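PhBC6A51 family helix-turn-helix protein
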Amino acid sequence: MDEQKQIPVPSGISEEQARLAKLYVMERHQSGISVGDFCSKHGISTATWYGESYMKNPVFESYLTALGGTVVSADEQEAYQIVKQKIMQMATKQSAGVKEIQLFLENFSHVVEADKQERMKELGIVPEHEKGQFKTVEERKASLLARLKG
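Structure:
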């Protein structure tokens, strides 16, 4: 993962959870590994993966989503922006070509998630994995003002 896009491990996430999250994002992006194959390869049951410690844990799920955004390349972002524009243009037409758009969105869901995270941050919505990083109201205020200026 790109060092400029490192996501700090949030409190409440163990070292093992952080390690598996990073591995999952990397392997999912590189080879499209399924959850079942990933769990089998790393000695974790799918029940555990989908349970309270992992995917049902909002902090872990948010952290996993944020990590997914770190592997999105500039080319993928650019392609997503082009398709997003096409979707908006096609939304008013009856012959929308939905199958082609669905195929893209299914294959580039990590790009869609990264875009959603960016829009949420622009709106001041803090992802679960980042909650608790600010201790005072003044720190939160400074962070929001920095985002508005940036």
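Helices lie at 15-31, 35-41, 46-49, 58-69, 74-90, 98-107, 109-122, 137-149.
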